[in-house]
Structures
1.
Amino acid sequence: MPSSKLTATLPLSGFSEIADRFDLCLCDVWGVVHNGVAAFGEAVEALVAMRQRGITVVLVTNAPRPNAGIALQLAGLGVPESAWDAIVTSGDVCRALIQARAGQPMFRLGPDRDLPLIAGLDAPEVGPEQAGYVLCTGLFDDATDTAGTYADLLAGFAARGLEMICANPDLVVERGGLIVPCAGSVALAYEEIGGRVVYAGKPHAPIYEAALALAEAKRGAPIARGRICGIGDAIRTDIAGADAFGATGIMVLAGIHAQDLMEASWDQRHGWFARQSHRPDYALPHLVW
């Protein structure tokens, strides 16, 4: 369904053009701050500059791991702590959903690198046939698998009416210039055959509410929705989530939609935005100050 916004997306050459409008920036990580392999230096500089201007920066990511793991990853990529005030992950929200099902047998669909998500929780792992619910953190091998790889498995879950918790609503993510599938693609396939899915991250409200609560605690005062911006590279999660939360949506073009947008003219970009479910308020090729 095309966007219902009547105003066109405005191009930016840098975030500084609109910085004085905001007290809080909710910034995506993958595709904006780094590509999974290397950090984007100008984006890091922009986040540091925001904080120097008094803007609180909360990194909001659909990574299916607790925020401590993301902080370590950022440090490993050379992103300094001066670039952010707090981090909220889909994994943080997901842990609360798992805790609400304490003791129930769970089938975990995803790579072992996501095991920190369930560390310390009462979430006994079982085989597909014994599961009371499904936790999807990703694909077992996102270099070779697709959602279709699990068609039979998902059909069995749906036939038994099992609920799936999706720890990462992203359909795809950029990794070192490649586009790889995420847990959201599996969850979507499950919904398409009648499966029930609970989503932990963007574009759904709980992750934004958690981010806002952290920001208001750090600032010691409420923050008006009109003084919040959400920066990201994905229409379906980042821009849709910002829009639903009442925040200003700012899109980075050189992310997962780069093939459609980076070589296009602004007239072509406006046409592309108009065909999407949500339209960003502003857009720029890369996050720069």
Note: The chain has two domains: 10-91+203-284, 92-199.
2.
Amino acid sequence: MTDTEKIAPRKELDKNLLWKGLYVAALIIVCGGMYWATTQTNYIWRWNRIPQYFYYVDTVKVSAEIEGEVTSITKKGDDTVVIVKGDGDSEFYTIPGSDVLVSEGDSLYMGDAIGEYQLGKMGMLMKGLLITIEVSFVAIILGILLGLFTGLARVSQNPFLKWSAITYIELIRGTPLLVQIIMWYFVLGTIINNLLALAGLPQVPSLWFGVMSLAIFAGAYVAEIVRAGIQSIHRGQMEAARSLGMTKSKAMVKIILPQAFKRILPPLAGQFISLIKDSSLLGVIAIPELTKATREAVTTSLMPYELWFVCAIMYLVITFTLSMFVQYLERRTAEA
């Protein structure tokens, strides 16, 4: 190896280090600028109050439901059992722990406190996060199934299947998701629940109308992704499979779809990440997902900056995790 060949990789390495250093410097400048901007606003930051929106300990009071006298207070394991006897009636109350506020012989009126105990509860943001994950996961699964079958129908030679798929795709992609959510809840939801009420059946919760609107919306985009992936495979693949005696459906499942899956994985990941963010629109039909929970927390706490920053970070964690998982799948499929 000549001296010139030895110097070239070293120059390339120095250039990469320079650009990496510039990136770190730019990141520090941006973060520093944001911090400086926050110090210039007339706002009191209360980050210490954020943890209670994930988990907090609540004091639960046990109240008397009848008028009467406390006749017995006994320990049962770690709990305390209080018996109250009234006129021809008696009630017993189990209080976790031993924080009892009455004594034997005390007279109680309805609503008087008998005892209290500490109970850990999930905060508003954590509840909203779990609902967002639940809704998005179910909508993604349904969207994949719907999009797969619609994409296959889109490339079918059957006019009924093909035209039906085109109609569904163009109708859903041509209208805003917010309008679809409102129509699902206020129009279709009202009709469906009224019919169920007439039949004496339980009504469908609003959560499921939100899930269906997201799934149907995602299914239309997945269908186009599947269609493009199938058509990107050379026609010779299908012809070779048919020449070996495979049926068209078997060749599609065994030959075409596995190859198409590798190509459609990145756009599918992008669609599902968008779906998670689009779930924030479900707040318009009173589904307490993450964005709606944050909005309610801001209303009660008057901490808009902290809570919206935390909300954005929580969405980022979900989408970044999904992105990393898809990259892992891409590496596995590339090795296969």
Note: The chain has a mean pLDDT of 86.
